[in-house]
Design brief:
It is a single chain. With about 250 residues, this protein is of the alpha/beta class. The protein has a 7-stranded mixed beta sheet, sandwiched between helices. α6 links the parallel β6 and β7. α2 crosses α3. It starts with a strand and ends in an 11-residue tail after the last helix. The relative contact order is 0.15.
């Protein structure tokens, strides 16, 4: 993928609405389709504008995906693509490697581009689904290789470990994972949530006992199939939707 692309899925509600940037996973090597448009359709059913970002992946390296995500969030907050967006309520939702991208976006990891490294490029809330978070502890080696190359420095590994950059201004988060995820250990979600709690940032974490990695909306997986209704209820409590919590 030479360039990023952004696709809008409008909310089924009139007037300015909250918006969420959806970042599918794929180990920074590809894009997982089931974590993209189907998730955007679910958000739209809750009255939230959704935007799917197909960000650059390998052979592109950091900070290319983060540049894509920051540019997309700034475009969304400014009401890009013709939708009526409430610019004070723009969030991010990411799966796996997309969860890592969402977490680095949320913790204001720098790209080095002053036009992108703005407070407006930090989302107002975060949803992380079995995310990759740490590049220093229980790492997902495929993500490391694809994002940073085969011999990254310790400083660079720490730079992209989102749990090390949480502050009191990091946005609230809803996080979920499965305890027996064999690809990305649950430690990643525990570490990020622990950092949020230590910083005094509201966080909600759900760990389901069983479920493979990459479940997406998980409509047929007992336990993880609850995450959409739990997240919808959280979004309602956050004031982002008046809809009744819905599962898919």
């Amino acid at each position: 993928m030479a360039t990023a692309s952004l696709t809008a899925v409008p909310a089924r509600t009139d007037g300015p609405r909250p918006a969420v940037l959806v970042l599918p996973g794929g180990g920074y090597g590809h894009q997982a389709d089931h974590e993209a448009e189907p998730v955007a359709e679910w958000l739209a059913s809750l009255g939230i504008h959704a935007y799917v970002l197909r960000y650059r992946v390998a052979p592109h390296r950091h900070p290319a995906p983060l540049e894509d995500a920051k540019a997309a969030l700034l475009q969304i907050r400014a009401g890009g693509m013709g939708l009526a967006v409430d610019g004070t309520r723009v969030g991010v939702l990411g799966f796996s490697a997309g969860g890592h991208l969402a977490a680095t976006l949320s913790t204001a990891v720098a790209t080095g581009d002053a036009a992108l490294d703005l407070q407006a490029a930090v989302p107002d809330l975060t949803v992380l689904c079995y995310p990759v978070v740490s590049y220093t502890d229980e790492v997902h080696q495929g993500c490391v290789d694809n994002l940073l190359g085969t011999s990254p420095s310790e400083a660079l590994l720490r730079e992209v470990s989102a749990d090390l950059h949480v502050t009191a201004t990091t946005p609230p988060a809803f996080v979920w994972h499965t305890a027996d995820d064999a690809a990305v250990p649950v430690h990643h979600s525990l570490a990020y949530t622990g950092s949020l709690v230590s910083a005094g940032v509201p966080a909600e974490l759900h760990v389901f006992p069983h479920g493979r990695h990459g479940l997406g909306l998980a409509p047929e997986d007992p336990g993880p199939d609850q995450w959409t209704s739990l997240c919808a209820a959280w979004l309602t409590r956050m004031g982002w939707t008046q809809s009744s919590p819905r599962a898919m």
